[in-house]
Amino acid sequence: MMLGGCETNATVPRLYVWVKVPDHVEKAALTEGRPFWSTTLVGCAIAINRTYFLHIGGFDTDQKIWGGENLELAFRAWLCGGAVVTVPCSRVGHLFRPLPYSNGSGWQQQWQKNLMRVADLWLGDYRRYFYSSTLIYPGRKTAYTADEKTSLAARFELKKRLQCRNFDWLLSNVAPEVPIPPHDALYHGEIINYRTHACWVVLPDGYLAITFACYEHKLIVDNIFSLNGDGLLMYKDKCVRFMFPLPNLKVERCPQKPTLEYGIWSVSYVDKRWAQIQVTHRHNDKITVYCVMHVTSAVEPHRRMQMPQTAPCVNDNPFQLWAFTYRFDYTYKV
């Protein structure tokens, strides 16, 4: 059973993701039909009291076509004194008509504007992740018109009148499972392989392995890694270490500062999405660059397991090509 979640950064025109319902909540929902909290709404299936809906401002009428309205309304409900719940025993039919809109850059820019309004109005300081992960794509670069700025100012006045909380409150009280990228993260999210569509996961003993339970509009916290500008590849509050001379990768306590003896991580792109994930390592004054590769391990105690391990870099090897879910460029100021 899943509930609606969100991410503060989005390289596709939405911030909506599915999140696994905690086991105790799922049990109550399935055995008693008990509604449970949901951070966000599914845009096609909303039930709301009309008087309350109008009181909190209805839909943002300058969000055009569709995209983002389910997030904006959900954030407004939570932050302005209301709540959002999923009713497990409800049934909704959704007919999706053929889209009457062209799928050109204009539509992409309108989606972006819709989400910009969500980010600017509700995300606070977290909007830096949204802008730095979307404006790297030329088709997403856009700006408000004068009329849109005026209407957005009116929504800020509504927010003030409703005495709404800030986004930190929602992250602490409603969606504590949402992983926030480290402040200096350049790359963040799942690390998925080009050839196998599998991604990295950490075993109970700390070694990195491969899982095929990867992101498909779902938020899987245990699959999330970050790479910062200092060359540290991080998993939660720990770091990924190259276990030289073995090819294994293992999560350990982070060093006080990264060194070549420890291994400096970097990303080398071959196209707009896919890249080699490289670690530069020094041993006996010899510096070598290795690439991470999806392999069947020949090393005990994980022999025959699918794992990401270091190997000599080879051009055009699809098992050495990876993609992070998100890439950040903080030169785009907001």
UniProtKB/TrEMBL annotation:
The Galactosyltransferase C-terminal domain, residue ranges: 32-94
Pfam families (alphabetical): Glyco_transf_7C
GO process terms (BP): protein O-linked glycosylation
Keyword Kinase: no
Signal peptide feature range: none
A GO-annotated cellular component: Golgi apparatus
Molecular function as annotated in GO: polypeptide N-acetylgalactosaminyltransferase activity
Keyword Cell wall biogenesis/degradation: no
UniProt entry keywords in alphabetical sequence: Disulfide bond, Transferase
Name of the featured protein: Galactosyltransferase C-terminal domain-containing protein
Species this protein is from: Ridgeia piscesae (Tubeworm)
